[in-house]
Structure formats: C-alpha cells, structure tokens
Amino acid sequence: MAGQRLxxxxxxxxxxxxxxxxxxxxxxxxxxxxxxxxxxxxxRVAVLGGGVAGLxxxxxLAERGFEVTVYERRALGGKARSIAVPGTGKDGRPExxxxxxxxxxxxxxxxxxxxxxRIPFAGNANGVWDNLVAAPEARFSRKDADxxxxxxxxxxxxxxxxxxxxxxxxSAIETSTNMxxxxxxxxxxxxxxxxxxxxxxxxxxxxxxxxxDYVGAGKRSNEFxxxxxxxxxxxxxxxxxxxxxxxxxxxxGEQFLGNPLEVANDGALDRLLNGATNEAWIDxxxxxxxxxxxxxxxxxxxxxxxxxxxxxxxxxxxxxxxxQTVGADYFVSAVPVEVARTLWTPEILSLRPDxxxxxxxxxxxxxxxxxxxxxxxxxxxxxVAYVDSPWSLTSIAQxxxxxxxxxxxxxxxxxRDCLSVDISDWNTPGMLYGKTAKECTHEEIARxxxxxxxxxxxxxxxxxxxxxxxxxxxxxxxxxxxxQKRNSNADPLLxxxxxxxxxxxxxxxxxxxxxxxxxxxxxTNVDLATMEGASEAARTAVNKLLDVAGSxxxxxxxxxxxxxxxxxxxxxxDTARYAAGQPNMFDA
Length: 588
Description:
By secondary structure, this protein is an alpha/beta fold. It has 14 helices and 24 strands.
C-alpha cells in the first residue's frame, strides 16, 4: 500500500500544553468566579482520570476553591485528545497530529460548549468556544449507487400538530434521501411516537427494545434499513441495530430530526474544531486548570481503600511501577467503565449494590485511523457516512476546516490534507482479507479501510488516488498481538444496549459518602457515551460533592435536552396511557 505507517509508543504521556499565546487574565464569559468552599478542612479532592469527565470535574471544583489533584494513567484529554506522531516533524515543523477519532460537536451539546467559553484562548472573545466551526453538509455514500448530500442546517417549519410533525420530518427525509414517501412518513411517525412518549415509557418500555425492532426495519425497504436502522446506530453508539437501545437512538433522533429550527441549540447542528484537538482545546484547558491550582500526576488507579462508609485512599501506580496510597477528603472516579468496575470490591458493593450492574454493561470499539494526503480532497464539506461499508466507516477531511493548525505547516511540509476515519464495526469481515478489524494487522487495517473508502467514493469520480497517500496513523491504543493474531484496545467505548439504563449508576449514593462517579456511563440526560455525557456526569458529581461538603458555592449549571413544547400535552396524556398499560396514542 502506498504511504508509510506512522507509529507512536504507548508509554505514559502527560503532555504539557504548548503555550497558546498570552492568555487573558479574566475568566471567559460564563465562568463561575473562583471562590473558596465553606471555611475549614475538607477541601482536598482526588480526581481519578484525566479525560473529559476528569478535566470537567477538576475545572468546576477548582473554580469553587477546592484543592484538586488529577491522576491520569496515559494522556490528559483521554479519548478526546489528539496524538502527536513522533518523528514526523521536519525542518522545524511540528509533528503531524493523529487522534483516537475525529471530534464532533452537535449543536444540541450544551455542557461542553459552556465549559469551552470559560477556557481563555488568545484572540478569542469567547475562549476556546470560538474555535468551533460549522460543517455545512453531510454526505451519505453508497457503493455503486448515488450518494446523498444533506445540508446541515435548519429545515422545514415548526409544527403545531402531530400531523405537522409527520409532514415536516417525513418531507425532510424524503427530499434529502432516496427514500420513498411511505418509508419516510412511517419513520416520521415512529419518531413522533417516541417524541410524545412520557418518561416512564421511555425508560420502562423503549429502553428495553432494540432500535431495529422499534422501527420495524425488517419490513421496510433496503434504503430504510441501511439509513435509518443500521447507519444511525453504528454512527451514534457503534452498536448493531438489533442491540442498541431505542431510548438512546430515539433521544438522538429527537435532537437531530425533531428540532427543525434548532431551538435552544448552542450553535450549528454539526461543528468541529478549527485545528488539532490539543492545540484548539485540550492544551489551553490544561493551562487554565493549572492557573486555577489543579495539580496533575501521572499514575494509574489500581484500587480503592475503604474505612467504614468512606473511601480512605486510592492506590496509584506510576509509570515506573512505584505504588502509593493517595489520600483526599473526596474522590471523584472519572475513569472509564471498564476500569471503574474493577475497583468495586465486595465491601464497596455491599455499600453500593447498584454498582454491580456495571459488570453487565457492554463495551466495544469505535476507533480512528488517519490518512495523510499530498493533495486536498473534495469529498464533502462535512462528515461522510459510508452507509454500506462492512466496517461502518465515517470520515471528515480536516484540512478545509483547520485554519488554526494548517496541515501544510506540519510534518515534512508535503501533507495537504488529513482524512480522519472512524471505524465503528470491528466485528464484521472486510472486503479484502475476509477478516474482522480486530483480526487484522495494522497494515491490513489501513489497506482495508482505504479500499472501502475508494469503493464508495471512486465509483463516480476518482476522489481518492493511491499516489496521494503520504502515510497513515492508527490510534496507538490499538495494539497487535502477533501470538494471538488479534488486536487489543486500551480505549473501548460504552455501548448503550437495550436494557442498559437499569445497569447504570447515579453519580452519588449517600451510603458511600465521599465517592462520586463522573464517567460517561453514569445516568445522564443526554444518555450517550460522548464528551457531552462525560461533562454532564462530571457536573452532576460535583454538585453532589458540594452538597456533601456543605459548600455555599454556586452549583454547576446543568442543561436539559430539547423537547417540542407543542407535543407536551401528548406526553402528559401518555403518562396516563402508560400507567394503564395502553400503547402510545400514535403507536399504530
């Protein structure tokens, strides 16, 4: 395959920020003025994990005068970070940027943007938030079939009746896809059923049902099955449509399709950063936290020590293997679900039996590979979904958006674009080797993904050329075991499967008074394993901590997702119908 593989070791890295210019002294608009917690002891907080959840918790606590130490095993930013590829910088240019997966900031995200406004960035009136740029379109690419390009903006009109809802959403689907009227209106009605369902039905009925069964995909057209059943689930939660929770997918549909005027959105429906994630967001964030007095320590949490109903210490091992027991007044667990559930001893579970359900939560892989190109691509002015690709690929050509970090100024100076690709299905055989991505070597993964991209994009014009491929980089968390002939993944993703809501814990339980949970597996309003979910969970955990500490500091702001007020009377009616064992009134 043309192009060389760019690699990076998996040693523990805690990258200090490269100065992003002289930071403004004042906190950006919307910040909480840093204030001391209530006088006295009890202000030390150990935040276990330095991903988005951990950094959010540290930010909120530090602004409120707490003494915060963050313990991170590998790299600050977690799955959201970008990864500098060692050895790629030449003649004084910085290294090329790889990443776990491309960043995506939908307009209905509210918690992450609120934090971004409070991270100063030189020349930006609204801090890091001003580094968000809108993607004006999305492309749905089909192999040997016409592709669909959808404008990512407001559509239609607001509705006043359920019939208006069906007509508006159905028309938008029909005109922007190759779907027939009957399928489009049918799906609009299924979305109407969800949007008019009361909370009790959403959590008690729809969370128990897979998305495929909810939309009746088996009885609809192939176009319906591919776009509205398979693609929606693999893109959002990296899950198969026969496993994904209707609660999760329906909630996302309510935000993407059920809000045509983007009411209460923070910004455009599809946004991304104008440069590499670390330069445009993570490094300035870490700088801000250091300014607030947050301490960062390299270390992996291996266990929690219990004294009665309190955590008395956390066992942390550094990169050299040296262990220490970390003391604090409060502990915020911001490690991912697959790590957190290894910390729950029988003694901890006896105090918080609700944590036992975490052992049944499902994780799988949604991981990125970047192709560095010698020529700028002209695929789409936004994200691309390769609808029928075996590995459920999505991509973004980053060069067109990176005015903050021009690719021409990185690496050896010959790279003009970066096609960042997410692989959402690691369990289906590919088209070249007949193996799943988990069973392929890294070179085979690169060849396979490149072939799947070309099969979709080059069937009408040669949008990808082998000669343009400079090199590629696969997320360093994916490691090949030659003996097992299989990859492992240090950064799997929580999958919101049917029935998983009942298995997920709340951020705090008084039975274990000084432990607070801030991972994206915690029950949240957004109900999706995302940066937004991590941020919301962290804010919830901090508010609970402030309650326990008796702090008089302002509580973290929490946002709710949009629900059409026009449909509220029908949700109220559905409360009585669900209690009586009756279906939703629109559920024909």
